[in-house]
Design goal:
The protein is of the alpha/beta class. The chain is built from twelve helices and 13 strands.
Length: 436
């Protein structure tokens, strides 16, 4: 029996070695030719104009890592999601696709959230807009085929609030409308029908309203939640193994509601999610306690800023209608980012969830209009990851690989910080927790 097991293990190791050596003989450009050939057989629809991003200098051909061949679900103990969002400029030419995949592999990333093209749905309720360059569908398909063949967990990134695109750039959807719930589900299923062979799931961005408001005003928070519940149920019914992930705004306190001190939650039970009421009561002196108004004696009670845009991501996890939430905290400020990570861990633990359901956003970008530390700072990203791991978090997503860096750094500086040296957080590859 022992001999049989030994022989079986020998065959497995030999097969892996052969596959690895075989994979090294192909460049990304050769895979690219195969992907483009396959894409010619797929009917494509008009695509949106890309977001305006600058290009970065290329790194040449990339070596393709073969995907893991072991079957079955991914064990959370043997995985870590290391992702990046990819805008259209990251894959809109063959050279861009080769360079982007090379960067993902050199950084030991394993997950890509790739911005989706426009698509029609069977009942005409999908994302609509003015005719634009149809090649984006071809480019999208070519890239996700490349990434899938390289073992990257690909997720179709869609801007939920912009399902309806108008020529003037304005867009409004009413998440409280049951017809919108179904339209969003139709959109998701149409994308999965077309691209699901190369995708592990759907990633919702902008799953919120665009204005800062009172929590659950006119049942808007309920509407967003019901939209996700409808999408999740129909996605899992047709594609049980596919994942539904979402972004979320930060947990930074938003000061709008004026509650009595201490807060009388019974007056706001239909507005403020119950999990947060419970968390607040269990954490006296928390950051959401504000100052008392001298005239009224009332206290401004804060709530996570995402609630002001009608998001309830902790509630979505509690209800089991998303597979992972990714907060968008892009600061390079270690204290601010650590506070974000610490609170998210506390939030999800308060509902009995686990860190496997959470991925922390990391900012590789600069905004001149912000004063909270958005910058290209590779050392800060490493510090953020190390802190996240120290408190038990294991999933991280970068915004974004592929944009031009204007302070003398390039994506290679980030790649080196992530992978070079024994203390580098991504110095060895690992499988994505979002693989299926």
């Amino acid at each position: 029996m022992l001999k049989r097991i030994t022989f079986f293990l020998f065959i497995q190791v030999t097969l892996l070695a052969v596959l690895f050596n075989y994979s090294q003989s192909f460049s990304a450009a050769q895979y690219e030719q195969t992907a483009l050939k396959q894409s010619e057989q797929v009917q494509v629809m008009p695509a949106p104009n890309p977001r305006s991003l600058d290009e970065e200098e290329g790194e040449g051909d990339v070596l393709i890592y073969m995907p893991l061949i072991f079957g079955g679900p991914v064990s959370s103990a043997a995985c870590e999601t290391r992702g990046t969002w990819l805008n259209i400029d990251a894959f809109d030419t063959a050279q861009d696709r080769t360079e982007t995949l090379s960067k993902i592999q050199r950084a030991n990333l394993n997950t890509a959230f790739v911005l989706a093209p426009l698509i029609d749905t069977p009942n005409g309720s999908g994302q609509d807009g003015p005719p634009t360059d149809s090649s984006t569908h071809e480019n999208f398909l070519a890239f996700i085929q490349l990434a899938h063949q390289a073992g990257i967990s690909v997720h179709i990134w869609i801007p939920s609030r912009f399902r309806k695109v108008r020529a003037n750039g304005n867009s409004k959807v009413n998440f409280t409308d049951p017809d919108e719930h179904q339209a969003q589900a139709d959109w998701v299923l149409a994308l999965m029908d077309k691209y699901g062979a190369y995708s592990a799931g759907i990633h919702f961005d902008y799953i919120r309203y665009d204005n800062w408001e009172i929590i659950n005003r006119r049942a808007k928070m309920d509407g967003v939640t019901n939209t996700l519940a409808t999408v999740y149920a129909q996605l899992k019914a047709k594609y049980p193994a596919k994942r539904l992930t979402t972004t979320s705004f930060s947990m930074t306190p938003g000061w709008v509601e004026e509650y009595e001190s201490p807060p009388r939650w019974d007056r706001y039970a239909d507005d403020v999610p119950h999990w947060f009421q419970d968390w607040y009561e269990a954490h006296p002196g928390n950051i959401y306690e504000g100052t008392i108004d001298d005239d009224s004696g009332n206290q401004y009670i804060g709530a996570p800023v995402y609630m002001k845009y009608q998001q309830n991501p902790v509630g979505w996890l509690q209800e089991g209608i998303v597979d992972m939430v990714i907060p968008m905290q892009y600061t390079s400020n270690l204290g601010v980012w650590n506070e974000e990570a610490d609170h998210w861990k506390s939030f999800i633990e308060s509902i009995g969830s686990t860190p496997d359901k959470l991925a922390m956003g990391l900012g590789w970008l600069r905004s001149e209009n912000r004063d909270d530390g958005w910058d290209w700072n590779p050392t800060a990203l490493v510090d953020h990851i190390q802190h996240g791991r120290s408190i038990g978090l294991k999933n991280f997503v970068i915004f974004e690989i592929g944009a031009t860096v204007r302070n003398g750094l390039t994506d290679q500086d980030l790649i080196d910080a992530l992978t070079t040296g024994n203390e580098a957080p991504f110095n060895t590859p690992i499988q994505s927790c979002l693989s299926n």
